[in-house]
Request: fold
Amino acid sequence: MTRTSKAPSRSVLATAAAALAVTGALISAPTAGAAESTAAEVSPHAAQTIDNIGASGAWWVNDLQHFSPAVQARVAKLLFSQQGLDLSSYRYNIGGGGVAVTTPARAAEDFLNSDGTYDWSKDKGGRTFLKYAANYGVKDLIGFVNSAPAQWTTNGKSCGGQLKPENEGDFAKYIADVTDHFARQGAKLDYISPFNEPDNSFADCGQEGMPVPVDQRDDIVRALGAEQKARHQKTGIIADESSKTTQFTSELPQWISQPDTAQYVSKLAHHTYNNPDDGQLANVYETSKAVGKQPWATEICCFGKGTTGWNQEYDPTIDNALLMSRIIYKDFASSHDSAFQWWVALASGYGTSPDTRNDQGWNDGLIYYDPDYATNGNQKLYFTKRYYALGQYSKFVRPGSVAHNVTGAPSGVEVTAYDSKGKWVVVVNNHNTTDTALNLHFNSKTPVRATQAVRTSATEDWASVAKPTVTGSTASTTLAARSITTFVFDRHGYGSTAVTGVWKGLQSGKCLTAAASGAAINTCTGDAGQSWSYDSSGTLKGAGGYLTAGASGLTTAAYTGDATQRWLLNANGQILNEASGTCLDVSGQATADGSEVILYSCNGGSNEAWNRQQ
Reply:
């Protein structure tokens, strides 16, 4: 994507900046009654498996190629080693030649000569850091394209022109040739993203970029997929990298449903520059369920001034780091993405100072360098708290970790839990300006033992701090004000207990009640018809049987074990059906006894928020 030193370079986002700046915060207000439980609950039911956490190598590599080999090696260690971020994915920018691009660092070289031959000596900086990522064993190497080579675009530029339909096959062959070449060099690309933010025009030419109409996206995917298949390449395709979740949910179903297209798509990719609310994030999950693919959040940056919406600002402090961690939390806990990928790992746009917050820079990098390095020789690196915030996840939440939702956290606290090779990894954001107590119950039949606690705060960077006390399966700790803490627990055994209680609607104040037609709301009485058991299989079992998303609506039925009977309990109170991705919703926002509870596309409304009470 975009953004950096002097001005945001994506025209669509630039013109929308004012609107995004005043949109609502990404996280909804704390759910009423969330603090009524004595402990936050780690769901006994597993949600998604995490594929990777990473960042992009776009643009900054074109500057870093001029830095000393020692600095380059240090940057690679900071990004890819276990002592650094230990990133499990890295996005390599396959350049389009940079024709007509006005910002030199964003004019990525391509390998294609005018006569159709290749010059593999091009893109020295990009190749250097791709090789580093491969040598460090980064799990997922992703090649992504901002623009096809200029000779195949409608305007002959690397910005603002569409890929000519007659050159879709040439483009597919080029990408496959690049993939084959790097595989021979020991840098196998695991995934290819053939277009990036296709909804953007890129007409200002501040960076490379290629608009791709909805009805061309499937053509490009099929052309590339067929070329890969013919070569027996094992490289997956991710798409469509829409800049906004709202465009992702409306446009992706249109092109991926075209004949012979879905078979070539490995993962669904979206960006979150629209500052999505809880309902829009849940719609990502719903859309992904509808097409049977797992979603990835593949780009975000450039938020600030106290919100997760687009804003020009440079803020290296814990304030912006907590906003980043909030976005990661929501991507994993609400849209149930299997990957989080930050925009550029390094940037030079720190504005008036690399050490202090200012309105002239941009929050697009994790580490910064001097934009005037070429004239003053300064190759110093400047760290932001975002670097350490990402590491609170990337160093601990490793590929294959399984997310478990956490409900009932204290106000101002966000908790995510991951089952990772027999251990629990728990990442906690405390947005409060005071220290905050947290009790966390693991729903385990066997004890847990705290083994590690690592914290980033205004004064700490990955500091080892006191471990929680644990009694049975409940951990207790005090969270430092304005901090991000990662806890690691040994997990002895894999048994889990069911969570039993009543689910009270936030809007109606009434309880989810088993009914002949499935479910309704009624005044809370505590009788058996309002008691629901939620277990490790994700079922909600009531007096009439298991709550089931039937073809004609909700029913209660005997246990079948399929996805129509599995539910995710999101921390924001949403209860999502795993088959459809839709929410339990009080129809018409009714409040009367006997009002029907239905499945409805998640919208973030209070009639879709439920609090469990014991």
Notes: The chain has three domains: 11-30+50-394, 402-491, 499-613. DSSP finds eleven helices and 34 strands in the chain.
